[in-house]
Amino acid sequence: MITLGIEGTAHTIGIGIVEDKKDHCNVLSNVIKTYHPETGGIHPREAANHHAEHVASLIKQALHKAEISLSEIDLVSFSQGPGLGPCLRTAATAARALSLKIQKPIIGVNHCVAHLEIGRGTIPGCTDPVLLYTSGANTQVIAFAEGKYRVFGETLDIGIGNCLDKFGRTINLPFPSGPTIEKHAQKGSTYLSLPYSVKGMDIAFSGLLTRAQQYAHGKKPIEDICYSLQETTFAALTEITERAMAHTEKDQVLLGGGVAANQRLRDMVGMMAEDRGASFFVPRKDLCVDNGAMIAWLGYVMVKSGIKMNIDETIINQRFRTDMVEVTWRD
Ligand code: AMP
Ligand code: MG
Question: DSSP code of 277?
């Protein structure tokens, strides 16, 4: 069975085509196009316009790369939420049009759950992980427990990626700023004290961001601020992830989201896993960031377990929570 997935929750429009190979996900193609605002953060309407402009050519590109024709697609999957309304509606509209055109079923999926399922689908041995999902807007620790994917910990204010990007904007770094902050951090050596906000299994970044901005205005070395920012936020993320692993008694940890590209975060979570005797997994880069292949794969997994959707059930949900998903494909 071949599934085409459309991702469009925020800044990225992505098309992925996957097929199942003995319950393993074989990615045939996975192409994305990302909207970069000229100044400031993401403007939802402009991002949606960007997605509308590129979605058709991305579908063609994905088919070409996968070396298949439209008639060979068996299922259309799309990101139903959570995300920015205009972006979600654009991806959903494209998915509905495609499904009607090729007369094949459609399914809407939860974006956060897709980040977890693509790890299970593509990485051997990754069967029941705790996911540390670190992206621009989202920061959550997710694991399967008693029939659902549950959020064990999450940010109480902004996402970790947002925190890094906002700090980057303060010091005039290009968007997204995470990769540049990582380079600066490698040259930092002096730890500048920042508030460490772990509240139970939740986490907060805005106080720490303000303090980091004050250091920047106070002309502290950028390298030291970036270093301190990474050390503090990543330590807190690692702590809540470890707590979820201890609580659920799981011995696998998976990273997902754009910030998972960061080597220091990988090292910290990897060390924690090693200390616990747990396995540590990171999907390959194109499957870590927002992408269509993970959306396609989750759509396939859901349909295979018997879930069906009519077009009128494909309404988007900006606040589609991870634990709202009825997980019929695992026990
Ligand atoms: P996503 O929303 O999952 O597409 O992830 C985008 C976020 O990942 C942005 O906030 C980026 O700044 C961040 N990001 C990308 N690469 C890195 C990196 N090497 N280190 C830290 N953050 C990163
Ligand atoms: Mg994401």
Answer: T
0.90 surpassed by pTM: yes
Inter-residue contact 142 to 131 (CB < 8 Å): yes
DSSP for residue 94: H
Helix axes 44-66, 85-102, angle to 10 degrees: 30
Query: How many angstroms separate the alpha carbon of residue 291 from the centre of ligand 2?
Result: 8
pLDDT of 42 reads 85
Distance CA 132, CA 250 (A): 13
Q: Is the CB of 224 under 6 A from ligand 1?
A: no
pLDDT digits (tens, 9 = 90+) for 40-59: 778 999 999 999 999 999 99
Residue with tokens 């192409």: 31
Structure confidence by residue, pLDDT tens digits, 96-138: 999 999 999 999 999 999 999 999 999 999 999 999 999 998 9
Residues 6 or more apart in contact with residue 29 via CB below 8 angstroms: 15, 16, 17, 61, 62, 63, 64, 65, 66, 293
Round to whole Å and give the CA distance between 167 and 79. 29
User: Nearest-CA neighbor of 127 among 251, 291, 292?
Assistant: 251
Contact 66, 28 (CB under 8 A): yes
Measuring from atom 22 of ligand 1, which residue has the nearest CA?
Answer: 178
Q: Are 96 and 311 in contact (CB under 8 A)?
A: yes
Task: Give me the mean pLDDT over the 288-314 stretch.
Answer: 97
In short, whether 14's Cβ falls inside 6 Å of ligand 1 is no
Q: 312 C-alpha to center of ligand 2: Å?
A: 25
Q: Name the maximum alpha-carbon separation found in the chain.
A: 61
191: left (phi over 0), alpha (psi -120 to 50) or beta: beta
